[in-house]
Specification:
Order of helices and strands: HEHEHHEEHEHEHEHHHHHHHEEH
Number of strands: 9
CATH superfamily of the largest domain: P-loop containing nucleotide triphosphate hydrolases
Helix content: 40-55%
CATH topology of the largest domain: Rossmann fold
Number of domains: 2
Shape: globular
Strand content: 5-15%
CATH class of the largest domain: Alpha Beta
């Protein structure tokens, strides 16, 4: 079903991503692939369909479960969960590996002590089998363990010929930072990886997606409703799916719009709250910067003036530059424009 809000897993449920799916299939024997695109563009669905189509053994690590300041225990717990979910396929690979114990249907991994196993050693053990290691929202792995992870990925890139790593990320700048694409000190610097970038649907594709979704739901919807949804959600499949579902429930375009903005607003508020925990003034300035950009301040000088007027104090160039760079690395804005129109409207409502 096109309007199923859960990630798609079957090829027949994936709308108009044949080129991107083919790109993954054609490059799956490379050591490292990256799937990138803005939030709700369909990366997880594409990944799951590709994994099922390929027929190779795989593990899927959902890095969204990690907290910002995660430690080694948190990361190894996540790896344990991923391996446990595929234990029936991987038990023979994991048996006898130092630091790895199979307890019933759960995989225990030693993250410290005498039996500690490093990430590189774990990847070497998994290399006994042709295996795809998929990491969803991999930019969340930045932080305390980021450097060690890069070292382990570089080691696997060079020596573990049976492994392919597939990383997805909606915060594209942060994902590239994790890999170290522009950092000569990164062990992955200069190594080739194939990147599949997921773009938005065209207006025609968006309209066809909505028509088919409503047909599957057996609801006749006028073209004026479809046209307005296309205008509101700018070709982002996740929002189109959300809109279709909400319209089935509410039969009101205005209700659909308000619910979508409410979802985006909560996400922006979470970002501001996270920055506020580090520094109350930082939280205020992120909020002001988001509101000012949403109101059309599209030059550095006009944005600075708007933030200073809201703050009532002068704001240094370096502080504002850091805010802008962070919002771009998070794939929220680019060149003083929101990448998602729903986020733009939500930012106007920040308090």
């Amino acid at each position: 079903m096109l309007f199923d809000e859960r990630p798609k897993e079957r090829r027949e449920d994936l709308f108009d991503r044949e080129a991107e799916l083919a790109a993954i299939m054609d490059n799956i024997n490379r050591p490292l692939l990256v799937l990138s695109g803005v939030r709700r563009i369909g990366k997880t669905s594409l990944l799951l369909v590709a994994l099922n189509e390929l027929g190779h053994d795989y593990i899927l690590i959902d890095a969204r479960e990690l907290k910002a300041n995660y430690g080694r225990r948190d990361l190894y717990s996540l790896l344990s969960k991923a391996l446990s979910s595929r234990l029936s396929r991987l038990a023979d690979v994991l048996k006898g590996v130092r630091g790895v114990n199979i307890m019933g249907n759960y995989v225990e991994i030693s993250w410290r002590g005498r039996d500690y196993i490093s990430l590189a050693e774990l990847f070497d053990a998994l290399n006994r089998r042709r295996l795809i290691v998929a990491i969803d929202e991999a930019q969340r792995l930045r932080g305390p363990m980021g450097a060690e992870l890069r070292e382990a990925l570089a080691h696997a890139y060079d020596y573990d010929r049976n492994l392919t790593f597939v990383l997805t990320g909606s915060e594209v700048g942060l994902l590239h930072e994790l890999i170290g694409v522009d950092d000569p000190s990164s062990p992955l610097y200069g190594r080739y990886y194939h990147e599949v970038q997921l773009g938005r649907f065209s207006e025609e594709q968006s309209a066809e997606f909505l028509r088919r979704g409503f047909e599957e739901a057996k609801l006749k919807v006028g073209e004026e409703v479809i046209d307005e949804m296309v205008r509101l959600f700018d070709g982002i499949p996740g929002w189109l799916t959300f809109a279709g579902n909400q319209y089935l429930a509410a039969r009101s375009l205005e209700e659909v719009r308000e619910r979508a903005i409410g979802v985006a607003l909560r996400e922006l508020e979470n970002l501001v709250e996270e920055k506020s925990r580090a520094s109350p003034s930082a939280g205020r300035r992120y909020r002001l910067a988001l509101k000012c950009i949403a109101e059309g301040r599209d030059t550095w000088s006009s944005l600075r003036r708007c933030v200073e007027e809201g703050e009532g104090v002068t704001v240094s160039s370096s502080v504002l530059d850091n805010i802008l760079r962070t919002l771009e690395r998070l794939s929220i804005v680019k060149d003083y424009e929101f990448l998602d129109p729903v986020y733009k409207e939500a930012a106007r409502r920040l308090r």
